[in-house]
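User: Sequence recovery, please. Input:
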């Protein structure tokens, strides 16, 4: 059973206790059976309605599924009516008001608890004044004053504790939210390449496995490996700082050109993995050709005022269900080697019937 349903059920059980108390009072002649028979279903009406709504799933859409504020206010009015009806047994009925405020701990703010406490105290004060003037023999002023002192001391003290508990709950929820955000940031960072801001290899493998599982049930996709041509010579001639600049520029230029459903990740060093949202290798090859031409047109400014141009080679293949992702990556890697052997700066598609030997997807 859900937590909110348990809370509403607990409130209902407490109200049954109040009904038993009123039944005993009526049996002893201190309350009218007519009043009890009317008061009993009315005292439970709102809680029953809330419990029914929660059981049917309607109440879960409310901000406060158990309607805590209305229920406490309603129960307090019911408790005051009980107090006014039982005469000599009215002392124990004061506990019903305290019991109603217990549920404020679970859902209300400290401010709401204070307002409800003020409402309940004022309600009892008004009832006691009216009763002592209306039936002074049944409700003597001295006894009413003594009862009011109890109400005036116990309820605010309880409200103070409930408010403190509410503040602790709010603080705990805030810390929980901050922890969840921190964990989300750590998870994002764990799956992100620090240099380029792209997915790293670990996250790319997860994405590749997801795409494979989806393609076994629906539309396919293509896999490509991209490798920056002569990148080692860039590092050797210009230094690793320039090499890092080239990698960042390559990533920042390609990401805006990707279509919805495409994924670009850093696979390692100067090598990148692309998951293309099209299943047709011809369409995928045309898309990669546009990326290749764009990279070829780039000019990276260097710190000494000169510019650096670079090119990229692509190896492409389609995913063939029900194979593993490593098999598609292996074919793309083979096609990439062919692109390098044929002079670089080109897109080469794996042979349709080419081998599909698996390779490790981890570092």
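Assistant: Recovered sequence (363 residues):
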């Amino acid at each position: 059973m859900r937590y909110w349903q348990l809370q509403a059920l607990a409130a209902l059980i407490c109200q049954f206790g109040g009904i038993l108390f009123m039944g005993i009072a009526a049996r002893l002649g201190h309350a009218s059976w007519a009043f009890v028979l009317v008061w009993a279903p009315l005292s439970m009406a709102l809680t029953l309605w809330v419990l029914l709504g929660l059981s049917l799933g309607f109440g879960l859409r409310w901000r406060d599924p158990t309607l805590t504020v209305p229920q406490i206010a309603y129960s307090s009015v019911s408790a005051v009516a009980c107090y006014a009806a039982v005469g000599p047994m009215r002392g124990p009925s004061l506990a019903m008001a305290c019991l109603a405020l217990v549920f404020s701990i679970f859902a209300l703010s400290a401010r709401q608890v204070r307002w409800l406490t003020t409402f309940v105290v004022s309600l009892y004060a008004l009832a006691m004044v009216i009763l002592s003037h209306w039936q002074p023999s049944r409700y003597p002023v001295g006894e009413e004053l003594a009862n009011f002192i109890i109400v005036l001391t116990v309820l605010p003290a309880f409200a103070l504790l409930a408010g403190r508990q509410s503040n602790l709950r709010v603080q705990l929820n805030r810390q929980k939210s901050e922890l969840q955000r921190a964990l989300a940031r750590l998870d994002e960072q764990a799956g992100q390449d620090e240099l380029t801001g792209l997915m790293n290899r670990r996250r790319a493998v997860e994405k590749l496995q997801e795409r494979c599982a989806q393609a076994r049930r629906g539309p396919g996709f293509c896999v490509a490996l991209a490798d920056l041509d002569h990148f080692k010579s860039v590092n050797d001639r210009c230094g690793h700082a320039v090499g890092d600049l080239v990698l960042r520029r390559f990533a920042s230029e390609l990401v805006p050109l990707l279509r919805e459903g495409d994924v670009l990740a850093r696979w390692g060093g100067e090598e990148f993995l692309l998951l293309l949202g099209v299943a047709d290798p011809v369409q995928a090859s045309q898309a990669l050709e546009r990326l290749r031409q764009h990279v070829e047109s780039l000019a990276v400014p260097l710190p000494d005022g000169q510019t650096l141009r670079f090119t990229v080679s692509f190896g492409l293949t389609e995913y063939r269900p029900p194979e593993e992702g490593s098999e598609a990556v292996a074919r793309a890697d083979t096609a990439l080697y062919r692109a390098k052997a044929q002079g670089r700066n080109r897109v080469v598609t794996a042979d349709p019937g080419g081998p599909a030997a698996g390779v490790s997807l981890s570092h």
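The chain has two domains: 3-185, 201-349.
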